[in-house]
Amino acid sequence: MITEYFRPQTLDEALALIERESLTLPLGGGTLLNGPHPKTFAVADLQALGFENISMRGKFLEAGASVTLQALAESPDLQESVRKVVLQEATFNLRNQATIAGTLIAADGRSPLGCALLAMDAAVKLLPGDQSTSYGQLIHMRAGVSEGLPHLKKQLITQVTINTEVVFAFEYIARSPADRPVVTAAAAAWSSGRMRVVVGGWGAHPRLAFDAPESGGIETAVRSAAAEAGDQWATAEYRQETAVILAKRVVEQVI
Q1: From the CA atom positions of the chain, what is the Rg in Å?
Q2: 217: phi > 0 → left, psi -120 to 50 → alpha, else beta; which?
Q3: Which of 94, 107, 195, 236 is deepest in the core (most CB within 10 A)?
Q4: What is the mean pLDDT of each run of 10 residues along the chain (255 residues)?
């Protein structure tokens, strides 16, 4: 439950709030934080800090933390294969509210966008320290996941970077086209020969199954990544078999 609301006018003010001893979380679109939570916390609204821009730096698309999913989907520089994933992530109304940073912080294993950007080895910029890290590392930096309130400890995402020259493909299985996936697979390929394969549809985050310069051994890697994938939605055996099928499809599309 939100107990205090702040609207910092500068980055320094925002960082000072986030670094307080009492839990203060960045507020972007509010699709997660505005929901019911047993834990109390304050929020620092980021809307005055100018994180809503999308720009290109060479082959890299740089999206500010407060860019909405709909704005990202409408960017002419985003690969069409990635755009489809963004549209799958949420309904139109939610895409106009949810931000890219908030979505990645909250993304569980059933998130199409989380699966996609993990496969593409997307990068995020963090303050303080102006450090850059991979989305894969960010997943393991999150706190509060078990409480349903994922966040970073005293850090702020300012930017998400996507390599637009990576060849990308995504496939999923769901109970209906509008439902959240129960199995996902994404593949990304670089001109250097590097390939990454990610599977998901369960758990707290998608799983990196494969990252290598050659495609041999992907089936074994995917089965291993889905070995303990059982939950109320599907058995581990079903997910293993389905993830292998989907992984083969996406790999065929990027090679």
Answers
A1: 18
A2: left
A3: 107
A4: 92 94 89 82 92 97 97 97 97 96 95 98 94 95 89 94 98 89 97 96 96 90 95 95 97 95
CA torsion 156-162-168-170 (nearest 10°) is 30
User: Is the Cα torsion angle 130, 136, 139, 140 positive or negative in sign?
Assistant: negative
Please state, in angstroms and rounded to a whole number, the distance separating the CA atoms of residues 102 and 202: 19
Q: How many CB atoms lie within 10 A of CB 231?
A: 14
Report how far apart the first and last C-alpha atoms of the chain are (Å, whole number): 47
Instruction: Tell me the CA distances in angstroms from 2 to 27, 40, 43, 97, 207, one per residue in order.
Output: 11, 6, 7, 18, 32
Distance separating alpha carbons of residues 57 and 72, to the nearest angstrom: 16
State residue 55 phi and psi, 5-degree precision. Answer: -145, 165
* Tokens read off for 81: 């294969």
92: region left, alpha or beta (phi > 0 left; psi from -120 to 50 alpha): alpha
Q: Which amino acid belongs to residue 188? A: A
